[in-house]
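2024-03-11 09:14:02 DEBUG pipeline.ingest accepted 1 chain
2024-03-11 09:14:02 DEBUG pipeline.ingest length=591
2024-03-11 09:14:03 DEBUG pipeline.predict start
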Amino acid sequence: MQLGMTENGIGIRLQNMALQNPVEYDVVVVGLGTAGAACYCHCVKEELKVLGIEKTNGMGGQSTVGCVAFGASPSVRILDLEKRGRGGDILYESVVIGVFINGNKVAGVRVLSNGVIRDAMAKIIIDASGNASIARMCGLPLRKGRDYDGIMAPCSRAETWMNLETKNVHPWYRNYPEDLTLSMKDYASTVSMLSRERHKHWLGARKKERLLKPAMLVGAREEARVITEEVLTLQEILERKPFPNPIFYAWGPEDLPVFQGDHAFESEPIQNWKVLCGLPFFGYPAVLTYGTIVAKGIDGLLVPSKHFGVAHDLGGGIRMQDDMRKTGIAAACAALVAIRLNCALKDVPYAELKPLLEAAGNLKPPRKNDVTAVRGYEFHAFSDEEAVNALKQDVVRTGEWWYAETKGAPCEHAVYAYWTAWKRQLLGNENEKKHLADMLAAEMQKGGRYAGNFAIALGLMKDRRAVPTLLEIVKHPGGELDPVIKNAYPNRVKALLLLGRFQEKESLPLMMDIIRDDAKSFMADLFGTGAFSTPDMCRFQALSYALMAIKSILAAYPNTQIENELRQWQQRDFKFLGMDGRDITDRLKRS
């Protein structure tokens, strides 16, 4: 029997390890957070012999153990979970220190509990740790953060506060987009930073706000993800790609937090959602499949919780409490079928799994079947005429999804018009695409204050008729096509993004002028308008999009002279500070 462990975040295997008084189970669930608690309780309900292992002193994750919510009570309390979980065994304040592997199958875990080592053997191991700790011990490869540079979505909701004047309740976050998967030491260091920031905020906020709920758990929104039999992306979900074998349906906000404003390095769907359309107040429906909870490359291991098989961009939205709960229930149902049929997890017949998922409520349709506002006014599909008319206004940012201050406001109609153009490109037939694109192009060619809006909508449709107007926007920032609007995401930055996608060679000299000037002239009139938080962040936006656009254009039209000039520019001694005052210069230097 091999024992898989981790050393500085890397899986190692010890050979011929003897068991120490092993106890046999059907299922071992590691981590009793939102996903793991649901999984454990469902295993008990199905009368499986189950062991739950939890490093804290209660089930339920941050929203239950930590008592962090938006002014309301958590949906499931610790006592409710404990009551449901009677009939199984639980080890609290215990950690898994090794995984037993027999051939190519996970066979059990070694647990350190109150200073005592215990071995628990099982037919199925369920890694609901949230950070893929069991998969890592097995030596499985992991996915870390976004494709471009591996940076993870930051954000730990650590406190809930109330404004003493407005009585509004709101969360307060700690945001450190680090790689939390290297070692225990690195993880502990980051948690310590989060805790120090918590105290600093408390000292500054206590005069005007009241702390309602501090979290006992300071976790990360995104850590390593397991490579599973299926890995779904946001692009596939928005394209409504047909997926067999669903384990649950979801509808929620695209809540990927990029607090340093570096969307230039995110995926195209995230850039469309957050930057070109401006849809943070909107959500989308999704279907999740069985393969997303089956670890690839080893049998006997299921991986519900936030490290399951979704890409970085999709994980920003499919990570809500109810979604995680359903991953746990799906894992329990799959374990039950695999044990009954004595089959490998990847071979579990969906015909046997589906009735169990239906009985558990996992296969209820999503509460909304299209992109629409999360709260307040609900949108229905725009006609082409409605989309065009909605873009005849200044487009400002909508509120974040947890606020309901802009119910059905004109700005929401405008961003939904952008979504209409993007949706047409994703899902429309050629005649439908042409009809809308022709209407947008006709309006754009009239010129005037809103011509830039129509060019951006055409860009979302990948229609090159947008290019001349996009070039004019970049040539004349702050001009008629790029009005300076308070709290708006400026057209000039959107134009940089789209010109890079079009690989427009004519824009290359314009981009290089922005780089040579460190975007000082290009963004000067936006300082203090609310477009971005600081002058540094204004310039960072232009530089990051210009650099990525140049990289895309040079891929089609190589230019050694420009490449050498960029290297020299990046090697200079310069600094850009992010929204929280942290140095984010490295993101420009490596792009």
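2024-03-11 09:14:41 DEBUG pipeline.report Confidence is low (pLDDT under 50) at residues 68-74.
2024-03-11 09:14:41 DEBUG pipeline.predict end
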